[in-house]
Amino acid sequence: MRNEQGFDEWAETYDESVSKNEQEESYPFAGYHTVLQTIYKTVTTGKAPAVLDIGFGTGVLTKKLYDAGCRISGIDFSRKMIDTAQPKMPKATLVQADFSKGVPPQLAGQTYDDIISTYAFHHLTDEQKAVFLRELLQTLNPGGRILIGDVMFPTDKERQACREKSGSTWDENEHYLDIASFTKQFPEASFHRISFCAGILTFTKDEK
């Protein structure tokens, strides 16, 4: 996982680098804004939902949800990311924490209508993802959803093809989901493909 200094240094250029990469329709950010827009539309179908954003970065999506009336809590590893995002959302509860260690104590006992994460879950190994998701499912209100938008692939074959095509730009320190393998642990999950290297994985809690 990238250290705090690395995230702090990236905070100043993150949005610019994402935009350039998406315009080129290349790995890793091809489909980035469509991922964000899809999650935004899904979350805002409800009335003023309580939302937890994991790895919210500079707050591109989080700010839109905040402006739409969502009650926002967020976790991010970088103090600079939080310092960038907090003035945009003064009433949001933004916590600096390493989410590879689970939900931080500051948010213990809170429940949410939607838990979202965009381009952050790849910092966790698949084993860490599974453990964290099981914890997050316990914090959902009935009928609540977890929406993970990230670099992910329907199969390992497609993941490897992207790796080969990307060459030196492929990040060996990031852990991209192979949906076919991962969802064997979570058969209730659904996958919506956005681009050749991006999609949204959704978990919904029973309303009972």
Q: Which properties best describe this structure?
A:
single chain, 208 residues, alpha/beta, Rossmann fold, 35% helix, 25% strand, methyltransferase, methyltransferase activity, Methyltransf_25
Structure write-up:
- With 208 residues, the protein is α/β, with parallel strands linked by helices.
- The protein has a single domain (4-12, 31-204), classed as Rossmann fold (3-Layer(aba) Sandwich), CATH 3.40.50.150.
- The chain has helices at 4-11, 14-23, 32-43, 60-67, 79-85, 126-137, 156-166, 179-182; strands spanning 50-54, 71-76, 93-96, 112-118, 140-153, 177-178, 190-195, 198-204.
- Strands 1, 2, 3, 4, 5, 6, 7 and 8 form an eight-stranded mixed β-sheet that branches.
- Strand 4, helix 6 (126-137) and strand 5 form a beta-alpha-beta unit.
- The longest helix is centred in the N-terminal third of the chain and has 12 residues, at 32-43.
- It is globular.
- It starts with a helix and ends with a strand.
- The model is unreliable at 1-11 (pLDDT under 50).
- It comes from Caproicibacterium lactatifermentans.
- Pfam families: Methyltransf_25 (PF13649).
- Keywords: Methyltransferase, Transferase.
- GO terms for molecular function: methyltransferase activity.
- Residues 51-144 form the Methyltransferase domain.
